[in-house]
Batch of 2 targets.
Target 1
Amino acid sequence: MTQRDRTSAGAPCWVELFTPDVDAARRFYGGLFGWEANEPSAEFGGYFMFLRDGEPVAGGMGPYPGAEDAVHAWNVYLATDDAAALADRATGAGAQVAVGPMPVADLGVSLFLVDPSGAGVGAWQAGSFPGFTTVEEPGAPSWFELHTREGEGAVDFYCSVFGLVAGDGIEDGPMTYTTVHEKGGDTDRAGIMEAAAWLPPGVSPSWSVYWAVADVRASAERVTALGGSVVAAAQDTPYGTMATVADPSGVVFKLRTPPA
């Protein structure tokens, strides 16, 4: 099992689902990944956590007053040592602060941004709660990816604001893919894809999460059996077998079985 106590600054540390149907989401993800879901917290506006083997793996939130127009999606949070300073750097680099910095009891400080390309991304300054602690195991996060129309600018933004370091870029026709890792590390944590050729007009850039599963094709079948849908069928790649799927409310996410 791949575990960690804390997440280095810049690396993904948490994901949360914003859904129009909390009950349906709890049933679906429980059936797909074997997660349990604790009860929504009145103290935190109905926020709840999905648990994998008893440990928090993701958060969840349903509609609340003032957020009727919010995008239903899986949101990715990157770790920071100082959410307030990061907010200042982000706005100076052309981002918009949507929420926060907001203390969450003694758990930490939450911040949500819209980056200069239009993609939403969160930041989490850990207090007593570090975020997820298991990765790359079935039912845990496996990879994170930004699709944007402004690849070079996005790489510059995330490196300058979050302190990430760009790895070697991969170019394939109009597609450029750049991995990023935290300073002082050499393990890739996420990818940034120049996706102008694929993003339909009117579709905003976005971050996505890949969930590790033992068998992508079997899990994709399970998605449909549970009322979800397959957006892009399983494909074998040098980086593992991957598929894009959606839950019953239409929230898109990805499945990945790493290469043997």
Target 2
Amino acid sequence: MNLLAIVGSPRKGRATDSLIDKAVEGFISNDPKGIVNKIRLIDKDINFCKNCLLCRDSDTKGPVAKCSIRDDMDQISEDILASDALILGTPVHMGSVTALMMTFLERICWTFARPGRQILTMSGIPLPRSGKKRKAAIIVTSGIVPPIFKVFCNNATPLIRGTIMDSLNAKTVGTMYAGDIEHRGVEYYADKAFALGRKLARA
């Protein structure tokens, strides 16, 4: 199985990065022959969406529409196409994902989806361009807010879950909120991250 891990933290080697590594370990423990590709968005040249709508209005029959921007999303799109499973991680910034992760999510929305769904009176809702099914796990970290209060600050998980379902046809099989890390430490959540990775591989 091909696993793509995407780190949305601007800080390398810190909580989000480390817990994604633990989840990858858990995944590999259950799928030793799995292929892992880890991407730190901070290392990539990913420009903001220009809202030109070239991708949204594309009539391509392929799994991904052409974007007007030429940057590292070209290669990342290829990595996504090759993936069977995803792990996405981000710290909570302003109650949601980081600017890095938001830019990534905006760039995959209409390139990997087309306006093909209708709910009630609303039409043009994203529908994956590809029928390939993927599975995913989401890790969200917070330095201060403990899990008991995550309802007040964690808009990141539903945003990621909804976007990857609508665009990448990825069903989220497990999520993890690692809160109050400044006091509890990363190791407090290491076993849970490992178990999340195993769950993803078994799903």
